[in-house]
Design goal:
Length: 326
């Protein structure tokens, strides 16, 4: 049975006064709409989804506020480690696994099982990735995924006689955005792009959160993410956190106050085998207002460490687990 929303929506009033609404109702209302009205589709994984095309969620980043879902626990440190890993340009899961972050383990694990026929657990595979550098090199690389595109977008130069050679150093889009935010804040080109059409087929998973753009107004920096494909039940919580965190980090580095985090999803879906997650989460009501303190200002956007971030006021309800579709 579909859960019934118990709280007020944005148009409700109490004694003639608007009732403040928690930002998370945007997420829950979208989840409800997809589950009840979404188009049922056959997808790449074979599991099947319910989906809508085109959605937006906005979040005010002022006063340290951060978009952490409270209707279930979100492991914000894992999401933060992933973002910091992107900024290194690394594409091998070894560092993530060494820090207990298993966000990307399922894709190389699936490839290893398919190609070798080995019956190995996720935990065993991750441990071997950490313990054996040669094994990690052979099986832990994801191809030119996010970090590679963000900080080392391949550039080819004319070598003559109809030949081209790859330049040793590619384009660092993140560094370019920092420079442009400082020196040309009104630019409409503050963009970090992950969808490199020439390299998509070499990636373990083509970028879902593909395009970021930043905007300066009244001394505030806002960030917008266009996401081509969003697993609303599992992936969204990390995606909007990473957007907000990257915007906060860029604001600190460039001298602006944080503005808004604006998430835009194209194919936004719920997997059909996530029914227990959806039904449970829609019975819950959001509460609280988590905040993030950045404890120091590093020399550059590339020098942040996990210890630099501290979350307060976060009291989530219990974790809701669901299978990842690979």
């Amino acid at each position: 049975m579909m859960a019934t929303r118990l709280a007020h929506n944005a148009s409700d009033e109490l004694d003639g006064r608007p009732i403040p609404t928690h930002w998370e109702w945007q997420y829950l209302d979208l989840m409800r709409r997809i589950w009840s009205e979404g188009d049922e589709r056959i997808d790449r994984t074979g599991i099947g989804t319910k989906a809508v095309f085109g959605a937006q969620i906005r979040f005010d980043l002022s006063d340290g506020k951060m978009p952490l879902l409270t209707t279930k626990r979100v492991f914000w440190k894992s999401a933060t480690r992933e973002l910091l890993w992107f900024l290194t340009g690394d594409t091998n899961i070894r560092e993530l696994c060494a820090n207990g972050c298993e966000i990307w383990t399922d894709w190389p694990l699936d490839r290893y099982r398919r190609e070798t026929g080995a019956d190995i657990s996720r935990e065993g595979f991750s441990k071997r990735i950490v313990d054996d550098a040669d094994f990690a090199q052979a099986w832990g690389d994801l191809g030119p995924v996010y970090g590679k595109q963000w900080v080392d977008w391949s550039v080819y130069e004319d070598a003559g006689e109809g030949l081209y050679r790859k330049r040793e150093k590619g384009v660092n889009q993140v560094a370019d955005v920092v420079e442009s935010l400082v020196n040309n804040p009104g630019s409409r080109r503050h963009i970090i792009e992950g969808w490199n059409v020439a390299e998509v087929d070499a990636m373990a998973l083509p970028p879902c959160h593909k395009s970021y753009q930043f905007y300066v107004a009244d001394g505030r920096l806002s960030g917008l993410l266009y996401q081509r494909s969003c697993d609303l039940g599992l992936g969204f919580a990390f995606n909007i956190w990473s957007l907000a965190l990257l915007t906060r980090m860029l604001a600190q580095q460039t001298g602006y106050e944080p503005g808004e985090a604006i998430w835009m999803g194209a194919d936004v879906h719920l997997y059909l085998n996530h029914a227990p997650l959806v039904e449970e989460q829609l019975f819950r009501q959001p509460k609280g207002e988590p905040r993030l303190d950045i404890l120091r200002k590093p020399d550059s956007i590339f020098d942040y460490r996990i210890e630099d971030f501290q979350v307060s006021g976060y009291e989530p309800q219990a974790r809701i687990s669901a299978p990842v579709a690979v």
